[in-house]
Amino acid sequence: MGPGSRRDMLDDHFGDWNWKKLVGLGATLLRKMDEAKDEHEAHTSAFEELNGALESEITVAWRAEVEHWEENPNDLYVPNPFDAKVSTITQAAVQLKLAEMEARQLQDGTDMSLHLDISPSVFIAIGIDLESEQRRFKSDIALRGAHPTDRQNTAVVRQQNTLWRKSANTHTQNAISQVEARVTSAAEKYRVAHAALSALAPVLSKVGWNVRFRSLNKKDDVRGMSAPKKGESEGRRQLSWIWLVEGVGDDKDKVVQDSLRLEWCKARARMMRWKEEIELLWEEMHQVLQFLRWHAHWWDNTVHLHTLTGTEREGVVVYAT
Fold first, then answer.
1. Which of 184, 189, 210, 188 is nearest to 199 (CA)?
2. How many CA atoms are closer than 13 Å to the CA of 165, on its beta-carbon side?
3. Angle at 284 between CA 280 and CA 289, to 5 degrees
4. Rounded to whole angstroms, how far apart are CA atoms 74 and 93?
5. What string of pLDDT tens digits covers the 321 residues of the chain?
6. Measured at the alpha carbon of residue 172, what is the angle toward residues 171 and 175, in degrees to the nearest 5?
7. Alpha helix locations (H) across 25-80?
8. How far apart are CA 249 and CA 79, in angstroms?
9. Quick one: how far is CA 101 from the chain centroid?
10. CB count in 10 Å sphere of residue 100
11. Phi, psi (5° rounding) for residue 237?
């Protein structure tokens, strides 16, 4: 194929693709509009549900804060409501929280430590330190270069052996498994209670209770406040219903309250962005119709140009009709 034939073939493909895109604009915009309406409805419902589960005094203050920020987009002195207000928790603070939790469990007789001398918090701390050493080990390997000396290789092998021994002597995975076991146990306890209520509700003539206390799906429902479902993007993410029940805001912990504030702001933003998407699509549909009418008129006028003759005129007539 020569250069001229190659260019002609590319022009044909480009023209065909552009033509298909042009004639398919109606179906494409309709599909996007249907999707935007469904998402807006879903995120509006999710936001209203979260907003209703929280105290009105708190949400009124949050709304005033975020609206003030939206009205002053260029004012750097207005705090961004999407930034966390609570300082990032440190490793020492985490260890303190875990130690306090273990102290309460010892008092209540619910401690689940697998070893008398080493508690789960110690396992976790050792695991964090081990991860830091692994990262340092990877960095040392990267700094060796393409042709390391025997001394460098010896140091790396010794470091690797130390890490393997530490990994074998720690039970960090056991501590993590304990946390997961507690989550699973709590979820199973809820499912049993839910099944009991489902059986007793008809006998006791109780209706509407399952609106608040829903069936618990381990795959999608048992997840963190900011954790999305698998494959779910931030613009489509919704909170699990376990964070939307009445009383979720009763926990006065600063980290929990700040997390709820952030999720409230994000849920409101997602609702508003999908509403904005609907408005933009309506305008785009209007502009497409205007353009197509103009283009049809342009082709009609082109047909009557006196400069066109023969096959040129026939081709224009075909496009115009």
1. 210
2. 6
3. 155
4. 36
5. 788 888 888 888 898 898 888 888 889 999 999 999 999 999 999 999 888 888 889 899 999 999 999 999 888 899 999 888 887 566 566 667 777 777 777 777 766 665 555 566 666 666 666 666 666 656 666 656 666 666 666 666 666 666 565 555 554 556 566 767 777 788 888 888 888 888 888 888 888 877 778 888 877 788 777 778 777 888 888 888 888 877 777 777 788 888 889 999 999 999 999 999 999 999 999 999 998 889 888 877 877 766 767 777 777 777 666
6. 95
7. 25-53, 56-71
8. 23
9. 30
10. 11
11. -70, 140
Q: Which two tokens stand for residue 254?
A: 């600063």
Q: How far is 218 from 185, CA to CA, in rounded Å?
A: 11
Q: Read off the tokens for 151.
A: 């001394």
Please state, in angstroms and as integers, the Cα–Cα distance from residue 229 to each residue in 49, 59, 177, 215, 223, following that order: 19, 26, 22, 17, 8
| Sign of the alpha-carbon dihedral angle for 129, 131, 135, 141 | positive
Tokens 């980290």 appear where? 255
Residue 113: both structure tokens together: 């430590």
Least Cα distance to 263 among 255, 36, 73 occurs for 255
How many other β-carbons are positioned within 10 Å of the β-carbon of residue 3?
7
> Contact, 249 vs 257, CB < 8 A?
yes
